[in-house]
Design brief:
19 helices, mainly alpha, transmembrane helix, Tscrpt_reg_LuxR_C, transcription regulation, Serine Threonine Protein Phosphatase 5, Tetratricopeptide repeat, about 400 residues
């Protein structure tokens, strides 16, 4: 059982240490307000800080890329919008919130192609949605999802279904975020224009314009007027279509979408260059430190080799000296033992006084004749004593006797 708990802690540990640092809802609100005020560069810098922060996990970075996509979308730079969503998708695959993030990114990609009026891409991405995908969408994204469903129904001439989906979207945003209602009323305007209900067209236009001005979102002011321009074109009212289009052009000039897009791209490139420069400097520092460490290691190895060589030479000398000392000790010990044993052997054999005298003279190097003269005995008597001594001591001749025994 204890093992089981350890396994649970082991698998949950990465989750505990990679908890996100940002509140995605708060971040979206902050970036949305900055973008509404056309402070796009401030938005980009804020989001870039999150992406470059070492403490940011994949969840944080994915949301930062998504908000960057929103920012570029606000200035009609759809290429960069898709690029940022793809970067968000890469981070999503590494996150424990993969399903939630991928659902959001899928919805945002679809909305980009919807704004670009690329029906084939919208329909292709729409097929990837299922109940599990939809459940991960925020209320605001869900409202935009219903807007797309409503527009798709218009393309398929299913006008009842179209109105139902658009009404769902309006109901959600009226409660959660009415700032985005102009986007849905633009779709309703298109529906009623198709149906030929011109009163409802103008009602939808006026409601959309009301919310755009109330929440001070210039981009929605522009798109609701674009919707009205298309309506005039549909009914061949080219005079009003031209007037409305001129108004849209003026509003776009005021909005400075192109200029803002260029500024954002310039800022994006500058940040990229800064990242590359930082990376290059970090690499150079790393190479320098590696070189210093390598030199230190090489010097250390050389010193160690020298010390090892000195140690081996010293050890060899000590070994030779020890061998010499050991041999000397063994030699001296042997001599001492021999002398001691010789004396003990002589004492143990109870040699006669005359025999001891003969042995003493033998040790002095005397000949048999000289021993006879010294002891006043004949040479034959000396030989007789020597024979007895050899037998008692177990030696062969006088040379061995002289080397082995001492008195």
């Amino acid at each position: 059982m204890l093992n089981h708990y350890f396994k649970i802690v082991f698998y949950l540990f990465p989750v505990l240490i990679t908890a996100q640092n940002i509140d995605p809802v708060a971040l979206e609100d902050e970036i949305s307000k900055l973008n509404d005020q056309q402070h796009y560069e401030t938005s980009l810098l804020k989001l870039n800080e999150i992406i470059e922060d070492p403490k940011s996990d994949s969840f944080d970075k994915a949301h930062a890329h998504i908000q960057m996509a929103y920012t570029f979308k606000r200035v009609y730079n759809y290429v960069m919008t898709i690029n940022k969503l793809e970067l968000a998708e890469i981070e999503a695959k590494k996150s424990i919130h993969k399903e939630e993030l991928e659902a959001k990114i899928l919805a945002e990609k679809m909305l980009v192609y919807f704004d670009m009026q690329d029906q084939s891409k919208v329909l292709m991405l729409l097929e990837k949605f299922n109940d599990n995908t939809v459940k991960h969408l925020t209320r605001e994204t869900l409202a935009h999802y219903y807007t797309v469903l409503g527009s798709v129904a218009i393309w398929r001439d299913d006008y009842i279904k179209a109105e139902e989906n658009l009404d769902h979207a309006i109901a959600i945003l009226e409660k959660d975020n009415p700032k985005h209602l102009p986007n849905i009323y633009r779709a309703k305007l298109a529906l009623y224009s198709t149906l030929g209900d011109y009163n409802k067209v103008m009602t939808a236009f006026n409601k959309g314009l009301y919310y755009a001005k109330k929440h001070n979102v210039p981009i929605y002011d522009i798109i609701i007027h674009e919707g009205l321009t298309k309506h005039y074109e549909n009914i061949h009212d080219y005079e009003n279509a031209l007037k409305t289009q001129q108004l849209v052009s003026n509003k776009r000039d005021e909005y400075k979408a192109t200029t803002n897009s260029e500024k954002l791209l310039a800022l994006q490139n500058r940040l990229k260059q800064e990242r590359l420069q930082i990376g290059l400097e970090a690499e150079e520092k790393q190479q320098f430190y590696l070189s210093v460490i390598s030199i230190f290691v090489i010097v250390l190895i050389i010193i160690l080799l020298i010390l090892l060589r000195v140690y081996k030479q010293k050890n060899k000398l000590i070994l030779h000296e020890n061998q010499y000392i050991r041999k000397e000790v063994e030699r001296l010990s042997t001599q001492i033992d021999t002398k001691h044993n010789a004396k003990t052997i002589l004492e143990s054999h109870n040699l006669t006084e005359r025999q001891l005298e003969v042995i003493k003279l033998i040790k002095e190097g005397k000949t048999n004749k000289e021993i006879g003269v010294e002891l006043f005995i004949s040479e034959n008597t000396v030989k007789y004593h020597l024979k007895a001594i050899y037998e008692l001591l177990g030696v062969k001749n006088r040379i061995v006797l002289r080397q082995t025994y001492e008195l």
